[in-house]
Amino acid sequence: MSGPAGPKLVGGRLCLDFVNTVSGRRRGRPLRERLLSYGDLVDWARRAGALSGAEAARLRRAAATRARAAVSALARARRLREALYRTLRARLRGLPPARSALRALNAELAEARAHQRLVPRGAGFAWEWPRGQGDLGRVIWPLARSGAELLSSPDLDRVRQCGGEACGWMFVDATRNGSRRWCDMRDCGNVAKVRRFRERARGRGHGGAARGEEG
Known about the structure:
By secondary structure, the chain is mainly alpha-helical. The protein contains 7 helices and 8 strands, in the order E-E-H-E-E-H-H-H-H-E-E-H-E-E-H. It is globular and about 65 Å long. The mean pLDDT is 87.
């Protein structure tokens, strides 16, 4: 599930790749945290396309002089990630979302929208966040917006959770027949195939032993 540069980007949406910034889950809880520092969060966001190189460098410089604020921003990002995960997991299980998760999502979404500005782009207009600011929450804004866009879009019905043991990663199933089961066939998919092969081999071995005893 992870490459040399960090967690693979297999979710199909920014917010799902963000949800997947843990090394698997068991009973919904992260098995190992991958975002250990604010710098880790910025590096991941840059790789995922949520920040430009210049924005990432600006935030790293700001974090270096505002350590406590950086720790607080990292904690906010983690809370947003878990709120997204809990909300999506409830949806997959046919349950209503937890109110606390929705409050966390809406709080970060309101913060993100408060900083958006309408700017000219081409023949029309587009939303963007002001450049040149050192607000350490800047890295969180596109993540909150992506989560809100997914939760309010038809693609929500295509969100799946990997069937790999202790994986828990999420993704949008873009296959025509909705048959995708794994975050990555080369990882969880292959592990499952090997496990099934071994189980069948053990079953054949036990069957052969039983027939030999009967003879």
